[in-house]
């Protein structure tokens, strides 16, 4: 299996030189094509910090992050934006759709920015929108959509370029349970039927139970890994019992 992300001795500190807080102490992680990983941990454990570094939005204090064998901590900004455009998709908790564009244009945006031909863009937009059950909403503007539809739109936008890795930070954080389930089913489908590798930060055991592996971040380190054994309900129970044994403040 191809290694898409390799993290070596990753450290992140905040603050001045003489007064530093080490948020991430020593993270080592290999992520392979088609993995679906959930990163959990209590509030302030460093989940978003880790995701921001892996997704090129922030730089580590020490350590290496290799995407496709290329150390993204060492490349210049021009190369970094190319890597973002070509290899990475982002899903944020607050959707980040552009208000003055239709859903169709929002989903198509990464391709329009790449300068692809318009008939190809429309075809691909419809294809990805149908994966997320959005075809009948394509001409609507974000204010005409529900939270769940917006988040599925944001996810379709993240997947439209067929990126190697999707980074999702609390993608179900603002959704009700039905919309969360719809979104997670779509991500699962994209992971199982496409080649999408997904790395999702979540505090929610239900969302995490859709992943293939769950990593627990605690005290700046990955303390524990759980593997999905095939039955989602069983995995959900295992995650809950791990969270309670870790004395976490999760549900
Ligand atoms: N830019 C920053 N400067 C200083 N400290 C920061 C900065 N960003 C994050 N931190 C600190 O790093 C720690 C980890 O924050 P992070 O947002 O990664 O946690 P998290 O696990 O995602 O939490 P939550 O579940 O509450 O979102 C926190 O103590 C936070 O206050």
TrEMBL record:
GO terms for molecular function: ATP binding; ATP hydrolysis activity; transmembrane transporter activity. Residues 5-244 form the ABC transporter domain. Transmembrane segments: none annotated. GO terms for cellular component: membrane protein complex. Keywords: ATP-binding, Nucleotide-binding, Transport. Belongs to the ABC transporter superfamily. This is Putative ABC transport system ATP-binding protein. It comes from Thomasclavelia cocleata.
């Amino acid at each position: 299996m191809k290694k898409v992300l390799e993290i070596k001795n990753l450290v992140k500190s905040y603050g001045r030189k003489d007064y530093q807080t080490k948020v991430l102490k020593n993270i080592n992680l290999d992520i392979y094509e088609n993995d679906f990983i959930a990163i959990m941990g209590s509030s302030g454990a460093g989940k978003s910090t880790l995701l921001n570094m892996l997704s090129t939005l922030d730089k580590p204090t020490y350590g290496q992050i290799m995407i496709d064998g290329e150390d993204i901590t060492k490349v210049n900004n021009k190369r970094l934006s190319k890597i973002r455009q070509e290899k990475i998709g982002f899903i944020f908790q607050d959707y980040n759709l552009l208000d003055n564009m239709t859903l169709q244009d929002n989903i198509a945006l990464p391709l329009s920015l790449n300068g692809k031909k318009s008939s190809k863009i429309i075809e691909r937009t419809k294809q990805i929108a149908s994966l997320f059950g959005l075809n009948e909403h394509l001409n609507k503007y974000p204010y005409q959509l529900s939270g769940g539809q917006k988040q599925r739109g944001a996810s379709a936008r993240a997947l439209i370029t067929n990126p190697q890795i999707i980074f999702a930070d609390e993608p179900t954080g603002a959704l009700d349970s039905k919309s969360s389930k719809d979104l997670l089913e779509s991500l699962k489908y994209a992971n199982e039927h496409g080649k999408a590798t997904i790395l999702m930060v979540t505090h929610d055991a239900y969302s995490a139970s859709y992943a293939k592996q769950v990593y627990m971040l605690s005290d700046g380190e990955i303390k524990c890994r759980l593997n999905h054994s095939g039955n989602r309900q069983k995995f959900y129970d295992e995650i809950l019992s791990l969270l309670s044994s870790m004395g976490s403040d999760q549900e």
